[in-house]
Design brief:
alpha+beta; 3-stranded antiparallel sheet; single chain; two-stranded antiparallel sheet; globular
């Protein structure tokens, strides 16, 4: 028999990427409840809040999304947290923040990197699989 864990499990690491993608889509933030929950979660992520606080904020955002009839919720493989078909030689933009999320976007050479909605700065360009 295993001993019970102390407190809630750590938040899903894909949640930070899903939050960043959600904040970059203004149409999905039309509902005030979703917008407030997303801004609260982003604020906690920026300040380096504890896993318990982040987990609670992500759950509140997931609930707010589902109440607006968005059955995807926050994570559940739905908000651009992966890049299917990406080959290792592609240039990508990755999270610039101190708390790195797994969000990956394709980066084009002559275009600026996409904006990180959580940290308020441009994402960092690099090569996929080359220490990004």
């Amino acid at each position: 028999m295993t001993a019970p864990a102390d407190g809630p499990p750590p938040p899903d690491p894909r949640a930070a990427a899903a939050l960043c993608t959600l904040l970059g889509a203004p149409a999905e933030l039309a509902d005030p409840g979703v917008r407030e929950a997303a801004e609260r979660a982003a604020g906690l992520l920026r300040t380096g809040a504890s896993d318990a606080e982040l987990g609670a904020a992500y759950r509140a955002l997931d609930t707010a999304l589902r109440r607006t009839a968005d059955a995807r919720g926050l994570v559940n493989g739905s908000r651009g947290t992966s890049a299917p078909g990406v080959l290792p030689h592609l240039r990508v933009a990755v999270c610039p923040g101190p708390a790195r999320c797994p969000r990956v976007e394709r980066a084009r050479d002559l275009w600026p990197a996409p904006q990180c909605a959580v940290n308020g700065t441009r994402m960092r360009k690099g090569r996929l699989g080359a220490g990004t």
